[in-house]
Write a structure and sequence with these properties.
Layout: E1 2-6, H1 11-22, E2 26-30, H2 40-47, E3 54-57, H3 71-92, E4 95-101, H4 127-142, E5 146-151, E6 154-155, H5 168-178, E7 181-185, E8 189-190, E9 193-194, H6 195-205, E10 212-215, E11 222-223, H7 224-234, E12 240-244, H8 246-249, H9 264-270, H10 277-287
Parallel strand pairs: 1-2, 1-3, 3-4, 4-5, 5-10, 6-9, 7-12
Antiparallel strand pairs: 8-11
The chain binds NADP nicotinamide-adenine-dinucleotide phosphate.
NADP nicotinamide-adenine-dinucleotide phosphate binds near residues 12, 37, 38, 58 and 163.
């Protein structure tokens, strides 16, 4: 397949590129310097000469807290950009894969919540989530052959080369080298996910015609506090992790208290379960050694 990969310098793009190439696809890798997805003329000028079979959009405005102060910037990249790409894809008969987020879901009030399925009503609590939900809807409404894939808390080795906003694992490792104690939020349940594992699943999904909305994360769930403890245990760093509430942490954006995603739909299409989060984290910590940390 001829594939245009947008966001190629990002965490997910960085893990998708070699896997797509290894699967035999002819990939044109597009970083931000190559394409501006908020600009219709530019996107058309870059993509039309390529005439790809599939466009994969991993580009996003990912600054969750900053989006509260600059919602228009978030909406331009996460909402309007995907709309432009979807219209272009439909016009030319290209397939479009677009990546979204668990933050399309807001707080859960049920005492024993169960993982969200794709048909659950999404009501985001922050501007980032709203912009991403808008992008999903634009893609669904404008491109008939789409894959929209929601994921959560991505970490990939491209962050070591300065991609995007970095990731939680790298932040913990950096802080953990200097401090003996860290306070980490313990009342948000979700499933941080390795971009390597997500990329493996997406490479399988694009070989199907099973278009639609998907949830794709590593298996299991944890709080950020539990995740931090596992990072330090595996990295053999002696850091005491003190559980705190979201209110005590006091971030600008409201994040969901529960955003675990049920991934059985994608798992039935690609024929396998996504790996457990502990296993994914352990492999990430090994793989990051090879990029000279
Ligand atoms: N990171 C997470 O924790 C997380 C969680 C859930 C879902 N997601 C979703 O997963 C996808 C991949 O995330 P990621 O962590 O791989 O992102 P990332 O590392 O931040 O990479 C995104 C890439 O998109 C580029 N980009 C930003 N704005 C652009 C624009 N207007 N036009 C063209 N390119 C642009 C960025 O380039 P510059 O940096 O040069 O601007 C960056 O290289 C995104 O859709 C994101 O919303 C991420």
């Amino acid at each position: 397949m001829r594939i245009a990969l947008i966001g190629a310098m990002g965490q997910l793009g960085g893990d998708l590129l070699p896997r797509l190439q290894a699967a035999g696809h002819d990939v044109r890798s597009l970083g931000h310097a190559d394409i501006e997805i908020t600009n219709a003329e530019n996107s058309a000028a870059v993509l039309e000469p390529l005439q790809p079979d599939l466009v994969i959009n991993t580009a996003a405005y990912n600054l969750v807290d900053k989006a509260e102060d600059e919602p228009d910037a978030a909406m331009a990249v996460n909402g309007l950009g995907p709309q432009l790409l979807a219209r272009l894809a439909e016009k030319h008969g290209w397939r479009l894969m677009h990546i979204s987020t668990d933050y399309v879901f807001g707080d859960v009030t049920r005492p024993t919540p169960t993982p969200f399925v794709e048909s659950d009503l999404a009501i985001p609590s922050g501007r980032y989530g709203l912009s991403k939900l808008t992008g999903e809807k634009f893609v669904q409404a404008n491109c008939s052959r789409h894959f929209v894939v929601r994921t959560c808390g991505l970490y990939g080795i491209a962050a070591l080369r300065g991609a995007g906003k970095g990731n939680f694992v790298e932040t913990m490792l950096r802080l953990g080298r200097d401090r003996k104690q860290l306070r980490v939020v313990n009342d948000q349940l979700c499933t941080p996910t390795s971009t390597a594992d997500l990329a493996d699943s997406l490479v399988k999904l694009i070989t199907t015609d099973a278009f639609g909305l998907y949830h794709a994360t590593n298996s299991g769930s944890m709080t950020w506090c539990e995740f931090a403890r596992e990072i330090f245990r595996l990295a053999k760093l002696d850091v005491e992790v003190i559980p705190i509430t979201t209110a005590e942490f006091g971030s600008n954006a409201k994040r969901p208290n529960y955003s675990v995603l049920d991934c059985s739909k994608i798992e039935s299409v690609i024929g396998r379960k996504l790996p457990d989060w502990r296993d994914a984290l352990a492999r990430y910590l090994v793989s990051r050694q090879s990029v000279g940390t």
